[in-house]
Please model this.
Amino acid sequence: MKIIKDSEFDAYWKDLAGRGDDGAGSAAVQHIIAAVRAEGDAAVRRFASQFDRSSPEKFEVPRSIAAAAWEKLKAGDGELAAALELAADHIRRFSLEQKKQFADFEYPMESGLITGQRVIPVEKAAIYVPAGRFPLISTVLMGVIPALSAGVGEVILASPPGDEGLPDPRILAAAHLAGAGRIFAIGGAQAVAALAIGTETIPRVDIIAGPGNKYVAAAKRLLFGEVGIDFVAGPTDVLIIAGSAPQADPTAQADLVSADMLAQAEHDPDARARVLVNSPELAGHITAALERRLRTLPTAAIARASLDAGGLIIIYDSKDEALRIANTIAPEHLELQVSDTENWIPLLRNYGSLFIGEKSAEVLGDYSAGINHTLPTSGSARFSGGLGVRHFLKTVTTLRCAEGEGWEAARHAAEIIARAEGLAGHAESAASRN
Model:
């Protein structure tokens, strides 16, 4: 765990950015994509044998197996089933509220000139759910439910096969609960390639969403344009802004901060947990609290590796400097644990999701509050937001023209601009309507 002052941040961040990404895995992924394009199912099966825990005879999982997995989960772990039902309800309600923000309209620009917008869901979407160190049950809900809420015609779930040739049974159960139309036991870059290109038995989709390892991310990056994607995800991260009020107990706040840092760090050694604090004393309390919690945390080995590699405490002298640093980092998750949150919110611009106040633990966003946990990473929150209904919608425009002064003015202007650009055919197209 590194502790720096705010005056040291710029040099630290520049050095970090300068290391960049060496594109590890891109060449291997290009080979996988080329093979899937040429050989279809045979290539997917071969790479499954090489990279996955099994290579199933048939990739598609019957829906009856997912339904049985859900019934078995309800009978064997009713508490988890109830928690998933609550989360699904919250995600669905939030997604439907998001959908309301996208509407068709027509706007009469001038007489004879009516512009418009139509919002159209894509026809087929695939949600990729990794199943590496931890089976991401919640990611099923976070991907499938917004797609269905958007009105997507067919929502496909893809997740790597386990020893029995099927995805994790809890992932299957969640797929049934969420309402996935089809389920495929495929994983890794070969799954992304198959869904983007289409094979004998795996359908080509319009968009692929969901997290994955660096090979999945590389495949999405390389295939973007041939298929739509949500975004290219990197290692997960959190930034917590903590500043105790004079009357607050700094040890209590440090305990909350340490809990939230470890919740992020336990994902992966590449995960990044960072915190901005307003005093060296609070920084000391946080490091002590981290050590206490690590002694009993079952995932301590992963979390400690993450903190050792990139854990960071930044001591800030002023609110303005804290805001500048937070907006520069552009974290995936931003927690605001200060006494006057409402004065900070308008000045924070770059984050995937904002968690306001000490009770708003980031883990609630991960699972059950209703907002999405698939968020922009690696600073891409500077220009992108998290997964939602909008990723499965196309906003297209319309034009309806009739005789009128507005139409004639637009037609004439188009002719003039086209001639200025040297595009005679364009000019003649406009002129022919005179």
The mean pLDDT is 95. The first helix runs from residue 9 to 19. The chain has 17 helices and 15 strands.
